[in-house]
Structure formats: structure tokens, C-alpha cells
């Protein structure tokens, strides 16, 4: 039996989720993940991993809700299973607070997370006297340092392979794969020449603060404290078009001061690690299929990249869409007939 060869470029949370979805749903495919960097060296590895949805201007709300819901459901089922600690997926509760009352008091994801409530004025006064508005909810935190190896293991179990390699052009893959799936994140800027891709620099601290049990996020998206399994992720910055990967001392002092204002006890916490990552910024994620002329042959390419600051939060949902697109490619190529 001839197997359909699927090459997935990228081993961050998006690439591995997509590879697992394809390998498990389409056992007649042989899935290979090709990536320059694997865990723990991807952008995904440094993310706080909070499931929280940002909204994208040109994606229908129903599709965004589905991306978030599919991801939340998938991770909730892991969080409630015996796999939770190995996979690094846990439930977390806390608050998002605002200095000014936001236009959208109940965001589109408010009925998808658990127990979403608005804080009363009394509660705000007790907990966050400098803020005018607050939301309380329970969601999932997915820590990629354990989660990506857990996905790699799941991929191998489904028959998938991994190869460390920088792909300089999709041409290189045209003879080795029947379908190419592009999950290269910010790498898509050069790999497929996408000028809409840009870095959004994020600097965070990993701090030892085991007494903190609840997350706190300022609604401006720049200041947050996310307690996790071994450390709290404390941040952050959102600097567009900034490619610097080194730690900036000014950013560190500024974010620490902002976080200590929200949570004074952090001034006693030890800094375990500092980290900088570049979010794969794009106006909207690109989850679509294309036919590319490669070395005289039309090769189907499925794109799944450009998740910005939401990659962990929507990766499983966009991967389910990418799986649907791969199925459409196979249908069009009549490759199912190879079975
Ligand atoms: C400080 C910070 C905090 C964050 N917190 C959160 C959070 O709490 N929740 C959330 O949902 N998101 C968060 N994010 C965003 C999240 O990290 C990203 O959206 C997500 O990691 C994107 O995943 P990805 O798989 O697309 O990209 P990456 O993780 O960057 O993976 C890209 C992969 O493609 C490979 N690649 C690229 N180009 C090539 C090439 N030419 N050849 C071969 N391989 C290639 C890379 O080596 C890598 O394996 C945060 C980001 C930052 C920076
Ligand atoms: O926005 C947040 O709370 C965390 C996050 O996703 C990011 O820094 O990209």
C-alpha cells in the first residue's frame, strides 16, 4: 500500500498539534515534522500558555469561537485525566482587571471559559483598588515545556516522525512529500515570503512564588502574573517589529514594577530565569490551502501560522481546521484512491 507523505514544517505548538491531528485521523498518511528547532527551543516553550482568546479582525467570530472552544475542550480533557502532570496542563483561576471600563464587558469567549463573572465594586475595592473593572474566571494553563514533548510522544505513537532541519524553500520538499503543511510561525515571513508577518517581542520573568495561586492579568495585555507548575510567568512586553532576542534590563525593571503594583508580594520572589520570545504576529492567522508550483509540479500546501499572542490558546482548533484542509487536498488529488 502506498502511503501519502505529509511533511509538516514547524515543531512549535501549532506544528506538533497539526501533525498529531493528521497522524491520528489519517493513518494511511506518513507524517514527518521538519523543524529547525524543537522543544525546549521554540517560541511556544516560553509562553505562559494561558488559554485566553484575543480577537482577529477579519476572521468570522464563529470560526474564532470554534478555534478557542476546540482547544479548550481538548486541553480540559487532558487537565482532567491522569496525563495532566506529564502533559503540563492544569486548570487555573484568576482575574483580568482594567483601569478603565472596557467597551466589551463580556468578551466572545466569556461563555466558553468556566465560571466567568464580573467583579462587584466591593470585590474590586478589596482586591484591586486601582482598577475600575474586573472579570473572574477559570481557564486552562498549558505549559509547553512538558506539553510539546508529550505531543511528540503522541505523534510517534501514531506513526509520525521528526527530522531536525532548516527548510530554506518549499521547493526542497516537493519531491519528498505529497502534501506540505506550513506551521513555521514567524519563519513564514521568509519561507513563504509573507510580508504580513512581523515579530511582537515579549520579555518575561520566570519567578519562584509558590504562594501565588491565582493569575492576574491587566486588560491592556502587557502586565500579567501567571502562577504555574514550577514557577510563575511574570510579564511582559508587546513590542511590534522588534527582533531583539536579548533581555532588556529596562524592560525587566519596568515590568517588575508594574507586576509588583498588582501583586506586592512579588518583591520577595526570586527570579529563576529571564526569557524573550517573538510572537508570530499577523493581522489574522493564515489557515488556508494553496496549490504551489514547485519544480514543475503542483503541490498542495496547507498553511497554519500567524497566531500572534494566542498560539497555545487556539493551536488545537486551527489544527483541526488544517486537518480538514489536508483531507480536501487528498480528495482533490484522488490520493484516497491509493488506499
Ligand atoms: C512572552 C510570550 C508569552 C506568551 N504567552 C502566551 C500565552 O499565555 N498563551 C498563548 O496562547 N500564547 C502565548 N504566547 C504566544 C505563543 O507563544 C505563540 O502564539 C505560539 O508559540 C506560536 O506557535 P507556533 O508553533 O506557530 O510557532 P513557534 O513556537 O515559533 O514554532 C515555529 C516552528 O517552526 C520552525 N521553523 C520556522 N521556520 C522554519 C524553517 N524555515 N525550516 C524549518 N523549521 C522552521 C521553528 O524552528 C519552530 O519549530 C506568548 C508568546 C510570548 C513571546
Ligand atoms: O496576553 C497574555 O496574557 C499572555 C500572552 O498570551 C502573551 O503574552 O502573548
Brief summary of the model shown:
The chain is an alpha/beta fold. It has one domain (4-337): NAD(P)-binding Rossmann-like Domain (Rossmann fold, 3-Layer(aba) Sandwich).
What would your notes on this structure say?
The chain has 339 residues and is an alpha/beta fold. It has one domain (4-337): Rossmann fold. It has helices at residues 13-25, 43-46, 61-79, 84-87, 121-127, 144-157, 188-191, 249-262, 311-333, and strands at 4-9, 29-35, 89-98, 114-118, 133-142, 161-164, 179-182, 198-208, 215-218, 224-227, 232-235, 239-240, 270-281, 286-294, 297-305. Strands 3, 4, 5, 8, 9, 10, 11, 12 and 13 form a nine-stranded mixed β-sheet that branches. Helix 1 (13-25) runs parallel beside helix 6 (144-157) and helix 3 crosses helix 9. The longest helix has 23 residues, at 311-333. The chain starts with a strand and ends in a 6-residue tail after the last helix. It binds flavin-adenine dinucleotide and oxaloacetate ion. Flavin-adenine dinucleotide binds at residues 9-15, 34-37, 42-44, 46-50, 166-167, 183-187, 191, 202, 204, 235-236, 277, 279-280, 305, 307-313.
Amino acid at each position: 500500500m502506498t502511503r501519502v507523505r505529509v511533511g509538516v514544517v514547524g515543531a512549535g505548538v501549532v506544528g506538533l498539534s497539526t501533525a498529531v491531528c493528521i497522524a491520528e485521523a489519517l493513518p494511511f498518511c506518513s507524517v514527518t515534522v521538519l523543524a529547525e528547532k524543537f522543544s525546549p527551543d521554540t517560541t511556544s516553550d516560553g509562553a505562559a500558555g494561558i488559554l485566553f482568546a484575543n480577537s482577529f479582525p477579519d476572521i468570522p467570530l464563529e470560526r474564532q469561537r470554534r478555534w478557542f472552544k476546540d482547544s479548550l475542550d481538548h486541553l480540559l480533557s487532558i487537565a482532567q485525566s491522569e496525563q495532566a502532570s506529564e502533559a503540563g496542563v492544569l486548570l487555573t483561576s484568576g482575574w483580568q482587571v482594567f483601569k478603565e471600563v472596557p467597551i466589551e464587558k463580556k468578551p466572545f469567549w466569556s461563555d466558553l471559559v468556566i465560571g466567568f463573572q464580573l467583579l462587584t465594586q466591593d470585590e474590586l475595592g478589596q482586591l484591586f483598588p486601582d482598577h475600575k473593572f474586573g472579570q473572574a474566571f477559570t481557564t486552562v494553563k498549558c505549559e509547553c515545556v512538558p506539553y510539546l514533548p508529550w505531543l511528540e510522544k503522541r505523534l510517534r505513537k501514531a506513526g509520525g516522525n521528526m527530522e531536525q532541519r532548516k527548510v530554506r524553500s518549499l521547493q526542497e520538499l516537493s519531491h519528498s512529500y505529497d502534501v506540505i503543511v506550513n506551521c513555521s510561525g514567524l519563519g513564514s515571513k521568509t519561507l513563504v515570503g509573507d510580508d504580513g508577518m512581523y515579530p511582537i517581542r515579549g520579555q518575561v520573568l520566570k519567578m519562584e512564588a509558590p504562594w501565588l495561586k491565582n493569575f492576574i492579568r491587566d486588560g491592556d495585555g502587557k502586565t500579567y502574573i501567571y502562577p504555574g507548575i514550577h514557577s510563575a510567568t511574570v510579564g511582559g512586553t508587546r513590542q511590534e517589529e522588534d527582533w531583539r532576542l536579548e533581555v532588556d534590563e529596562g524592560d525587566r525593571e519596568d515590568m517588575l514594577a508594574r507586576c509588583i503594583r498588582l501583586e506586592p508580594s512579588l518583591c520577595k520572589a526570586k527570579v529563576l530565569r529571564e526569557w524573550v520570545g517573538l510572537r508570530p504576529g499577523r493581522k489574522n492567522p493564515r489557515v488556508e490551502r494553496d496549490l504551489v508550483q514547485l519544480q514543475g509540479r503542483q503541490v498542495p500546501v496547507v498553511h497554519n501560522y500567524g497566531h500572534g499572542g494566542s498560539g497555545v490558546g487556539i493551536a488545537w482548533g486551527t489544527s483541526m481546521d488544517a486537518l480538514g484542509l489536508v483531507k480536501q487536498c487528498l480528495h482533490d488529488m484522488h490520493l484516497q484512491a491509493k488506499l
